Recover the amino acids of this structure.
């Protein structure tokens, strides 16, 4: 029996010719990631158990992004703990304020991710890198500590769902709409313990930014990872970023899948996930009259240049509705500069948006856009759980940057085509 | 090893943001952090819970963030075991890695009600509902995972192996 993309990568990294779903393996990892919230807990664990060395100075990335620039003294202490640890161990890929970005926007941009690599991170959205044909998945701080000490991690080989993509998306339909549509279809545990593998002739219509958004939200369907076939779009993206040898793994023709789901991209409408689960999706046409107080455009899901371009295209010459605060957060320093040069930041400022340095801030209710009781926000982020962005009685509606921008202008959830 | 206590029952898709909200993740003191456990869906949980008590959920318990703070605060509140129909995979790993016993048992999740007295035998996977006089059986841990639990966590297991080799 043939293997899926995930099986092939895991087999290679475990030094095995073949692996089967359900098999427990110990594999070599290419990169271990942590952030300012999860890394301090991992450092505590390493110290508690007396591990004094890390497996590699270049095989670890630590990105301060959740509560930076530090929101309070406690957050500053967490950042300092990471900074001291990185200095002590000579961690090469340590990203601090002024050079950082939101981790899952930053690592692919900096060429730290290549096809066929095995990447683990103490952040659930580590699954993002599957967009480049890597196997990447989130885990916790103790796992991070173990991986930093040994360069290895245990895995249960997942079964896979194959998503066969066809057709071309409609105007204003992005990777965000596709993944929200899929989560609405299979549910927040529809891919529990499984891989989500994307391929098919429709793939060529999805930009790298679209794919990063889709792989990013595999976890919102319960997925262990989301992985895309490597094609010309992938190769064009990594050109000039990745200078090391890499191997692109395609699935075998006779690979076994738990399910095969066909997705006609041309049939998908701009899609919104209503509170309080990402599976509560509706096409924007059926959103009804939902008045909003805030819009957030950014995050590891949708803070890339293509996302800002889509929002700026709609906001050009328009104003954010008087009743709405619109917060725009470029994902990395490089994206920020690119957005300035392209004129997007001027467009946002002219429209009445607040523009921030990169941070995860509002997505997880940390700071930089906390909601009051009863307030509603359209956000390009990834979760709309109870209390996620602030008060327990506030509401988050997940959408694409285009829907978010259109909604900011209208003051209610709106179809980008109506602008 | 056995656990006995009162059950706190919750529904499906109990996410890590309600187990421990992100606004609390700047707190490093474990006792203080634990005092916010479940507060967004059950303000009285931390006041009512006693050492040994159990948490029972439905499908996809612990979905969302990778924060290890979630199983950590449940354990810190003295909870002896979490039983659910299914667990989100990162929560599952994290619980095992920090030594919080968790069991998948759909029948137990359906039958056990909030406030029931329940006894769990981790060696056999047998869950006894004292209040209702019922018994349910959970699948035992695979040997690889049992090794981590027996070593009282992943890093101890690695240490032990390293010393042996």
């Amino acid at each position: 029996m043939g293997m899926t993309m995930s099986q092939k990568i895991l087999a290679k990294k475990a030094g095995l010719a073949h692996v089967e779903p359900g098999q427990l393996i110990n594999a070599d990892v290419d990169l271990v990631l942590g952030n300012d919230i999860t890394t301090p807990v991992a450092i505590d664990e390493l110290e508690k158990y007396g591990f004094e060395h890390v497996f590699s100075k270049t095989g670890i990335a630590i990105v301060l992004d959740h509560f930076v620039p530090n929101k309070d003294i406690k957050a500053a202490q967490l950042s300092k703990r990471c900074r001291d640890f990185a200095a002590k161990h000579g961690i090469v890929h340590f990203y601090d304020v002024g050079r950082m970005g939101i981790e899952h926007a930053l690592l692919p941009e900096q060429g730290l991710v290549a096809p066929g690599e095995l990447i683990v991170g103490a952040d659930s959205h580590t699954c993002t890198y599957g967009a480049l044909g890597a196997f990447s998945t989130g885990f916790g701080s103790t796992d991070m500590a173990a991986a930093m000490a040994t360069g290895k991690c245990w895995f249960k080989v997942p079964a896979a769902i194959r998503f066969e993509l066809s057709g071309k998306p409609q105007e204003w339909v992005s990777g965000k709409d596709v993944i929200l549509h899929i989560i609405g279809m299979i549910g927040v545990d529809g891919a529990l313990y499984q891989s989500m593998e994307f391929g098919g002739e429709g793939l060529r219509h999805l930009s790298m930014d679209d794919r990063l958004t889709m792989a990013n939200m595999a976890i919102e369907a319960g997925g262990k990872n989301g992985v895309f076939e490597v094609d010309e779009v992938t190769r064009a993206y990594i050109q000039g970023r990745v200078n090391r040898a890499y191997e692109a793994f395609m699935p075998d023709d006779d690979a076994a899948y738990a399910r095969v789901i066909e997705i006609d991209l041309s049939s998908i409408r701009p899609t919104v996930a209503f509170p309080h689960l990402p599976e509560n999706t509706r096409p924007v046409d059926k959103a009804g009259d939902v008045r909003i107080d805030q819009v957030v455009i950014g995050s590891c899901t949708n803070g890339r240049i293509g996302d800002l371009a889509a929002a700026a295209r709609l906001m050009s010459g328009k104003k954010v509705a008087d009743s709405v605060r619109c917060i725009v957060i470029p994902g990395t320093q490089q994206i920020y500069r690119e957005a300035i040069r392209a004129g997007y930041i001027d467009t946002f400022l002219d429209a009445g948006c607040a523009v921030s340095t990169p941070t995860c801030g509002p997505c997880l209710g940390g700071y930089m856009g906390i909601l009051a009781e009863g307030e509603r926000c359209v956000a390009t982020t990834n979760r709309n759980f109870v209390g996620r962005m602030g008060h327990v009685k506030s509401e988050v509606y997940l959408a694409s940057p285009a829907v978010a921008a259109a909604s900011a202008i209208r003051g209610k959830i709106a179809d980008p085509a109506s602008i | 090893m056995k656990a006995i206590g009162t059950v706190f029952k919750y529904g499906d898709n109990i996410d890590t943001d309600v187990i421990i909200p992100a606004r609390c993740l700047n707190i490093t003191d474990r006792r203080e952090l634990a005092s916010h456990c479940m507060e967004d869906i059950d303000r009285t949980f931390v006041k009512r819970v006693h050492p040994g008590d159990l948490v029972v959920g439905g499908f996809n318990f612990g979905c969302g963030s990778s924060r290890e703070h979630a199983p950590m605060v449940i354990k810190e509140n003295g909870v002896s075991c979490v039983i659910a129909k299914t667990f989100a995979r990162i929560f599952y790993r994290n619980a095992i890695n920090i030594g919080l016993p968790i069991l998948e048992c759909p029948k137990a999740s359906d039958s056990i009600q909030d406030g029931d007295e329940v006894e769990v035998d981790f060696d056999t996977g047998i869950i006894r509902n004292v209040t209702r006089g019922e018994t349910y059986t959970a699948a035992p841990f695979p040997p690889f995972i049992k090794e981590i639990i027996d070593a009282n966590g992943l890093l101890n297991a690695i240490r032990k192996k390293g010393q042996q080799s």
Q: What stands out?
A: DSSP finds 13 helices and 18 strands in chain A. Residues 46 and 391 of chain A are 35 Å apart (CA to CA). The two ends of chain A are 51 Å apart (CA to CA). Residues 73-89 of chain A form the longest helix (17 residues).
